[in-house]
Write a structure and sequence with these properties.
Length: 299
């Protein structure tokens, strides 16, 4: 019966075989593997029995590959060389851990990340997706969705985020939609809607209605499926506009009371500053604008 490639003992036997075939010696293979020559001999014998093929001709103090053994040795040598190459690249590659919310990651950071990594092949970015305040001990850089920047904090603002109500296309919305039967959809709490309503002089009790969801992308999906009106944030809502899944309710934008901020949690990683500078430049290039088509009001 053929061996099961998923069986760890089978894969282990191939490692023993590779070293023995390369050295043409069970003793030298044993030294390389830090085991006894007897262990090498037993594993290779088990492999030969599983394959039903003789892989070595055993002679006094020396071994030689059979024709089948030589064929297998060529294959294991190719695989071993490839594994060594991958391992060496991984060891040489510096890893930078970046904590970021799943919404900003999927809508803004991930589409740009490949270009950065291509320009810096010795650096790999590992994203840690978190909702809420991240643990700074787990990441070299944190990108945080939070209230307006505290002057005493060490965070830097990335975007002038602007809030705008959005809804599914075709929804018949009056200018003063807060006086109608429409329902707001909230992310985490009701403060964002209250801030927007207050800023344009609308009654804030509209924010007392509606459901509160814990994931920003789900808030937008709920609005796209007609469950109510959500607050979208420019420039990140742009993809929904381009896809025609959401439309802005007018062009009245309000500078958000919250925004994305970045903090470098380590002073010992030059690559952290490199990545942080790149993120800041990418953010400054963002154009914050809503589509010209409007279904409600005017600025």
């Amino acid at each position: 019966m053929l061996p099961d490639p998923r069986d760890p003992s089978y894969l282990g036997a191939l490692i023993y075989f590779h070293h023995a075939a390369e050295a043409l010696s069970f003793s030298r293979a044993a030294r390389a593997l830090n085991v006894t020559p007897s262990a090498v001999s037993h594993r290779i014998t088990a492999l030969e029995m599983a394959l039903g093929k003789r892989l070595f001709e055993r002679r006094v103090r020396e071994v030689h590959l059979t024709q089948d053994g030589n064929e297998l040795a060529k294959a294991t040598a190719r695989v071993w060389k490839e594994l060594q190459g991958v391992t060496e690249r991984l060891i040489a590659q510096e890893v930078l851990r970046v904590s970021v919310g799943p919404y900003l990651s999927s809508q803004w950071l991930l589409p740009r990340l490949g270009k950065f990594e291509a320009q810096h092949p010795s650096l790999r970015i590992d994203l840690i997706h978190t909702i809420g305040q991240p643990d700074s001990r787990l990441a070299d850089i944190s990108i945080i969705w939070s209230e307006q920047e505290d002057p005493k904090s060490k965070t830097s603002q990335l975007f002038d985020t602007k809030a705008i109500p959005v809804a599914a296309p075709g929804l018949q919305v009056d200018d003063a939609f807060w006086d109608g039967n429409f329902t707001p959809i909230h992310y985490r709490d009701r403060s964002t809607w209250r801030h927007w309503l207050s800023a344009i002089g609308a009654p804030t009790n509209f924010a007392d209605r509606g459901e509160i969801l814990e994931e920003p992308h789900i808030v937008l999906e709920a609005a796209a499926y007609g469950r109510g009106i959500a607050i979208g944030f420019l420039p990140f809502i742009g993809k929904f506009f381009e896809q025609g899944r959401l439309v802005p309710l007018g062009s009245k934008t309000v500078v958000s009371s919250r925004g994305y901020r970045m903090v470098v949690n380590t002073s010992e990683r030059p690559m952290a500053d490199l990545f942080a500078d790149w993120v800041s430049r990418q953010a400054k290039e963002e154009v914050i604008s809503a589509p010209t088509e409007a279904t409600y009001g005017s600025s």
